[in-house]
Amino acid sequence: MRILVVEDDKVVREALVSLLIEEEYVVDAVSNGDDGLFAAQQGIHDMLVLDVMLPGISGLEIIKRLRASGSTTPILLLTAVDSVDDRVAGLEAGADDYLVKPYAMRELLARIKAVLRRKGNLVTRGRLSYGGILLNSKERDGFIADEPLGLSTKEYEVLEFLMLNKEQVVTREQLFDRIWGFDSDTTASSVDVYIHYLRKKLAPRGLDKLIHTVRGTGFMLKERL
Known about the structure:
CATH superfamily of the largest domain: Response regulator
CATH topology of the largest domain: Rossmann fold
Largest sheet: 5 strands, parallel
Shape: elongated
Number of domains: 2
Number of strands: 12
């Protein structure tokens, strides 16, 4: 699970990042609204934790622009103002939940998990399945008829993202930013290399055909086109 934190207060931001990493989330963090909107628009995050008051674009404006573009990424809104009008404004803009500062870290984690469950982004018992492939997040491997695929870390993460977005086109850029990160020294050609590795491991069961190349765009995991 990858979470984007958009928070301008350095102390709060670093505390959030540390907490989420301890809970085994992958975390990206930015300190202003403009960077937050850009990062959120890449479509690589499972959830956004978003402050309302930010330098540049406000948290509410970020939500409005994301929802207007069709993004359904779950959003937990952090607000320092405990008023009905502000809470309603956030929810009406498209936030899935809100939390008033100061908050308990345990409550923050609980709300994140609750939102992910409601939106279907929290994998039940750490498992994902599609087209005869089962992914087990605890073992960090894939299985076909109980036989392990022996996936490397990157192979697992690529396949997981494809399965989380099954039957949807995932661009090379999305895969690269999701798996390697915005600041990686490698190039997007790594995506094609790992897609090749995955197909090779799926081929003995004829499941390599589940991964379709969408010419000029990226890839799609689908049983039939």
